[in-house]
Amino acid sequence: MPQVKSGRLKALAVTTAQRSGAAPDLPTVAESGVPGYEAVAWSGLLAPARTPPEIVTKLNTEINAILSQPDVRKRFLNDGADPVGGSAEQFSAHINKEVQKWANVARVSGAKVD
């Protein structure tokens, strides 16, 4: 987004399913004529397997609180990222959905690991 805002780069669309809070005037690729298109870079925090649930809950609560702070949200948006919080269960479901989606893309495309 900094390059777009400076005029060094012209953005045509966002690859998310919905318009981005970082660039609400940009259409999605789907709106631009490629129905169903969605490719999103995402990141998140994971804890080691068998971390006690109360620790996961505490971390999740604190991270959600941080992500809801106006200055933190603004920083993410200025960098072109839409901060998303939620529960550990929602994030786990998101990861599983992404793994299935991209495994299918690799299978259908015939991509092979060299």
Task: Give a quick rundown of the structure.
The protein is an all-alpha fold and 114 residues long.
Explain what you see.
The protein has 114 residues and is mainly α. It folds into 2 domains: 40 residues, no CATH class; 72 residues, no CATH class. It has 4 helices and no strands. The longest helix has 22 residues. The chain starts with a helix and ends in a 5-residue tail after the last helix. The mean pLDDT is 93.
Task: Evaluate the radius of gyration.
Answer: 17 Å
Strand content: under 5%
Low-confidence parts lasting 5 or more residues at pLDDT below 50?
Answer: none
Assembly state of the chains shown: single chain
Overall body shape: flat
Count of distinct strands:
0
- Pairing-aware structural class of the strands and helices? mainly alpha
What is the arithmetic mean of pLDDT? Answer: 93
Order of helices and strands: HHHH
Q: Sketch the major β-sheet.
A: none
* Total number of domains: 2
Distance between the termini: 33 Å
Fraction of residues in helix: 40-55%
Helix run count: 4
Describe the protein's topology.
Layout: H1 2-6, H2 53-67, H3 70-78, H4 88-109
